[in-house]
Amino acid sequence: MPPQPRSGTRKPPKDRTSAKDHTSDARLLTEAVTRLRRSLRASIRTDYPWETLPMAQVELLQVLAEHSPARISDLATRQHLAASTVSGLIGQMITAGLVTRDVDSADRRASVVVLTDAGRAQLTAWAQAHERRLGTALAALGDADRDTVRAALPALLRIAEHLDDSGE
Questions:
Q1: Which residues of 93-125 are buried (b: 16+ CB within 10 A; e: fewer)?
Q2: Would you say residue 156 lies in a domain?
Q3: What is the rounded CA–CA span in Å between residue 117 and residue 101?
């Protein structure tokens, strides 16, 4: 019979939060984010039926709302996209009147993309429609669930920042 360890000599187990638990949490968070995005995309048509703006263009408008004017290469870097992809999206957005292309004042050989008033108005309408849809969904929750969502928001924003930082 093998010797039994003496009582009190074993080290306490390490933190029981295992990689498996983190993977499970990550899977659930991925599912929640994916379902939220899909639901928002589908439900936005109710409040905003004429909306046809692809998400990639919305995200570029959001970046331009904070950092306009911007070079295509800077937009591509921020969005983790190929410059040719961003250039194609910008071309579509110019045609739609959402952005313009101007000469870079710092380097006359380069061009920059500038958000137009129409682009800003489109982004504002898009954001307001999403906020209304989410507001309605939040109002349908009980107080405890709303409090839980509110308490989780800072951590969710920190996760987003971590993902942004790790992607650069």
A1: beeeebbbeeeeeeeeeebbbebbeebbebbee
A2: no
A3: 14
pTM over 0.85: no
CB 69 within 8 A of CB 114: yes
Compute the distance between CA of residue 15 and CA of residue 93 in angstroms, rounded to an integer. Answer: 51
Collapsing DSSP states into helix, strand and coil, what is residue 131?
helix
For the stretch 43-84, pLDDT in tens is: 776 666 556 778 889 899 999 999 989 999 999 998 889 999
CATH number at 57 reads 1.10.10.10
For residue 163, the SS3 value is helix
Angle at 41 between CA 23 and CA 142, to 5 degrees: 70
In 3D space, the residue among 118, 54, 116, 117 whose CA is nearest the CA of residue 86 turns out to be: 54
- The number of distinct structural domains making up the chain is 1
Classify 146 in phi/psi space as left (phi over 0), alpha (psi -120 to 50) or beta.
alpha
Beta carbons of 122 and 106 less than 8 angstroms apart: no
CA 122 to CA 141: how far, in whole Å? 29
Residue 123: give the domain boundaries.
Answer: 50-134
